Amino acid sequence: MRAVLMAGGSGTRLRPLTCDLPKPMVPILNRPISEHIINLLKRHGVTEVIATLHYLPDVMRDYFQDGKDFGVQVTYAVEEDQPLGTAGCVKNISELLDDTFLVISGDSIADFDLQEAVRFHREKGSKATLILTRVPNPIEFGVVITDENNRIQRFLEKPSTSEIFSDTVNTGTYILEPEVLDYLPANQESDFSKELFPLLLEKGEPMYGYVADSYWCDVGHLDAYREAQYDALQQQVKVDFGYEETSPGLWIGQNTHIDASAKIQTPVLIGSNCRIGPRVNIEAGTVIGDNVTIGSDADLKRPIIWNGAIIGDEAHLRACVISRGARVDRRAHVLEGAVVGALSTVGEEAQISPGVRVWPSKQIESGASLNINLIWGNTAQRNLFGQRGVAGLANIDITPEFAVKLGAAYGSTLKVGSHVTVSRDQRSISRMVSRSMIAGLMGVGINVQNLEATAIPVARTVLPTLGVAGGIHIRLHPDRPDQILIEFFDDKGIDIPKGKEKKIEGAYFKEDLRRAQIHEIGHVAYPSRVVDIYSTAFEQRLNVEAVRNSKSKVVIDYVYAVSGAVLPQLLAKFGCDAVVINASLRQSAPAAAEKEVLLGQLGHVVEALQANFGVQVSANGEQLILVDEVGTPIRGEVLTALMTHMILTAHPRGTVVVPVQASGAVEQIARRHDGRVIRTKANPTALMEACQANDNVVLGGSGDMGFIFPQLHPGFDAMFCIAKLIEMLTIQERSLGQIWSELPRISHRSQTVRCPWTVKGALMRHLVETHSSEDLELIDGVKILDRERDSWVLILPDAGEPLVHVFSNSEDREWMDEKLREYRAYVQEFIEKEQGFEEVKR
After folding, report:
1. Among the listed residues 13, 170, 10, the one whose alpha carbon sits nearest the alpha carbon of residue 103
2. What is the three-class DSSP state of 666?
3. How many CB atoms lie within 10 A of CB 128?
4. What start and end residues bound the annotated signal peptide (predicted)?
5. Which of 154, 230, 402, 639 is most solvent-facing, going by the fewest CB within 10 Å?
6. For 680-702, how does the pLDDT look when each residue is reduced to its tens digit (9 = 90+)?
7. Do domains 242-370 and 747-841 have the same CATH topology?
8. In which region does residue 647 sit, left (phi positive, over 0), alpha (psi from -120 to 50) or beta (all else)?
């Protein structure tokens, strides 16, 4: 027996799932609906299938091809010009139907006993047998009434409530004799339920209804789509799962890794090649496709996640559908009944409200709340560059193809034949991205000086000596271990300014990429003596004699992220004992909690070895946390104050450059030493530029960002900072603990408030308008001064996240705490008011 699989439907009510898929190819348990139907046919001995196609026919043809891989023979009939209706498309292939045949809908899930239905058809001598089923609410279906012998008496297509005369409905599955097609006109649209069956009834042809007690679900709308998944998962319908049942109610594909700390309540289906992170919570009813990545601490309550989706850390999904290749970023919420279309992105901390549908390839901004369907337009990416460089999820945002294009965009802003340096940390992901960027640069005629795995301070130092137009450094992000950070330097080694970033963005987004001719293609060189150049500059700016006489012992923790252990070699050269721990390389960066454990261990080692101090180096040689001689960590604002105190003691009347949010202790220390403080915007480029632009700058930066010694090179350098500490401690004959005790006691705290991007500007304007201009400082954000107390509050919008930071600084701790509470509440109240106003406008 042959079967006609009606698979031409566009599935309008299932959109956005069917925007780029025909309805029969929408997946149930990671397999298209039509595959479940073919499996049903095959189980009942039907192996010849003719699929009638109309909407996006190539999707199904490409998937099933000739059907051999699915154990059947599949041929296709495509309605090219116009849809012919359920009966018209079968009439169109009548020459292939010379015996009793089956017609089955391609958009339902069922486990009918087809063999029993065929036996019933033949036993009754029926010309047309409709497989019927009973449903509680028949309003959406075609109602059929039969007599006591199951002969059909009457039809009513989609009745109103008052017209219901039976709960027995048409399932769209029919067993037909070929002669019934003679009643249909050729090449005209016609429908089984509306035209053919009423006509057969009128002509008195024997027509019967086989009432099946089996499961049947018409996947006609999004609620039904989810219900069909849940029913299949609970085995209320017989379907092939396609994966091994590793334990009762848990089906897992091949090559899938689930972290041991993840919690799973069955039944759950997880596809092949998936990665489930630590502490993920997966509740019963969840369906996860193939090649899906779930970040740590994600909370999944019955979502249906299609192939290739990426779910970020701490994301919350509630009975929603996440389509093919979509992304839900960190801490985003997608609530009940919502649908995220294929290749769309839900930004960090965004929220998709219940029932909201997002069409394919849309971008929801970080922190946004979406309450209406997003169909038209495409929310554009704001920019490539963030607070520092280009950052994105490793091998998800920052892929080889992205890096090639970014390298070409950067190179297109330079003259053909220019030279640039490319450097990276030692991790494989960084090597992959750097090679891709080199290919992009070469393709637009740029020559590359490949420094390979190099600490950032070394890369910045050698850059001006190579006569290049600029440089690129690729590394794991210092604050986000799942992200890659790509930084661009100018010819002096300073991070490029905003104007240059905009040029690169323009070339990238406008596809304004130069194509070099064959003879112009760039070449790659590997400079020698890179470390020697850095070492020479290092020594020239250090009191080597003081360091040599110190006989210091220092413990250096590289936190499994070393890129060239330059520092121990240099310190050994000066007669210092450098004990290195955790210097082996790990491809993934340690999480914050693990770094804290390592910091505690560092303190114990310092005490045990009676070392002068310990230091934890991070950010590929840029940042550090100190540990004093008794094992106590020194970091953040205390570290900023300590470095300022020591440097100004060594260089009185010097200038120190710090970011706008740094503690007021810096000014108090500067007054003691007749020094000067310059505050800049809270970004690395502003700090570097200010250190170069002002006279007599002896120190720049902060404990959080790292420290700049402008005479050496324009960037942050933890390695030189350590050597300088040894020098100053020796000359000043003090320990870190003693210097710490002399620092001014300033109270400095901060808190963070979630703030949508759309509200940030209005908040800043409101703060400026509601405070006296005499009490304001507008370097970056809004700083409100209390000059009598020498205290301040700073409200600083985050450059890369939908957040606002509130800082409070004072010698009076009670004042600081009170103002921090006051302004946090002030900011939250304004945000809530603005969001309420936006809701009213909608």
Report:
1. 170
2. helix
3. 22
4. none
5. 154
6. 999 899 999 999 999 999 999 99
7. no
8. alpha
**3-class DSSP state of 294:** strand
Cβ atoms < 10 Å from Cβ of 825: 12
Q: Which two tokens stand for residue 1?
A: 């027996």
679: enclosing H helix or E strand: strand 676-680
| Angstrom distance (rounded) from CA 144 to CA 159 | 11
pLDDT tens-digit series, residues 128-137: 999 988 776 6
How many residues are listed for the chain in this entry? 842
| 270-317 tens-digit pLDDT | 999 999 999 999 999 999 999 999 999 999 999 999 999 999 999 999
- The whole-number pLDDT of residue 160 equals 46
**Tokens, residue 683:** 């970004």
CA 749 to chain centre: 30
Side-chain-side CA neighbours of residue 618 (13 Å): 24
Domain boundaries, the chain: 2-218, 242-370, 390-532, 542-741, 747-841
CATH architecture under which domain 747-841 falls: 2-Layer Sandwich (3.30)
- Which fold would CATH assign to domain 242-370? UDP N-Acetylglucosamine Acyltransferase; domain 1 (2.160.10)
Residue 588, SS3 per DSSP: coil
| Residue for token pair 């001598």 | 125
How many whole angstroms separate alpha carbon 747 and alpha carbon 745? 7
- Give strand pairing partners of 793: 784, 808
Token pair of 657 as six digits: 């450059």
pLDDT for 161 equals: 43
pTM for the full model?
Answer: 0.70
**Residue 780 DSSP label:** S
**What band does 85 get if pLDDT is binned at 50, 70 and 90?**
confident
Give residue for tokens 């700073």. 794
- Beta-bridge mates of residue 60: none
Q: What is the dihedral of CA 706, 642, 658, 470, to 10 degrees?
A: -30
Q: How far apart, in whole angstroms, are the C-alpha atoms of residue 413 and residue 664?
A: 41
CATH fold for domain 2-218: Spore Coat Polysaccharide Biosynthesis Protein SpsA; Chain A (3.90.550)
β-strand partners of 163 = none
Residue 278: is the preceding peptide bond cis (ω within 30°)?
Answer: no
Closest CA relative to residue 456, chosen from 705, 281, 736: 705
Tell whether the model's pLDDT for residue 770 goes beyond 50. yes
- 797: cis peptide before it, omega within 30°? no
pLDDT at 550: 85
Query: Dihedral through CA 835, CA 837, CA 838, CA 842, nearest 10?
Result: 140
CA 240 – CA 188 distance, rounded (Å):
37
d(C-alpha 746, C-alpha 303), whole Å: 49
List of residues 6+ apart from 489 with CB closer than 8 A: 421, 459, 460, 463, 470, 471, 472, 473, 495, 496
Tens digit of each residue's pLDDT (9 = 90 or more) over 18-64 = 998 999 999 999 999 999 999 999 999 988 999 988 888 889 999 99
Buried b / exposed e along 642-656 (16+ C-beta atoms within 10 A): bbbbbbbbbbeebbb
Superfamily of the domain at 542-741: Alpha-D-Glucose-1,6-Bisphosphate, subunit A, domain 3 (3.40.120.10)
Provide the terminal-to-terminal Cα distance of the chain, rounded to the nearest Å: 57
